Amino acid sequence: MKKRKLGRSNPLEVSALGLGCMGMSFSYGPPKDKQEMTSLLRAAVERGITFFDTAEVYGPYRNEELVGRALRGRREGLVIATKFGWTASFLVAAALCACGGLAWLLVLPKTKTAN
Predict the structure, then answer these.
(1) Whether residue 61 lies in the annotated active site
(2) d(Cα 6, Cα 22) in Å, to the nearest integer?
């Protein structure tokens, strides 16, 4: 497997091919079978994949948990990229999009209510 370096001062060396894990537990239909996805993740490592992409919003949290469990004890030399800090409004929009359509979400500022 070819390798690539990410960054300059202290670069991470990763496989030229990475595995995006979003579809394993979020979007693109219902969550996939955990055992099948665990097997897929482990097979990717066996084939030289060292870069995995996940996020707390994929599930939420389910994808990070799946990747973590599947790669437990196999982390040497692997890089797991994640994203975090999503707001509730983003999660609502993501859920609407995952349900099979383009969603427009209007986020209004909080206003004082009359007493």
Answers:
(1) no
(2) 21
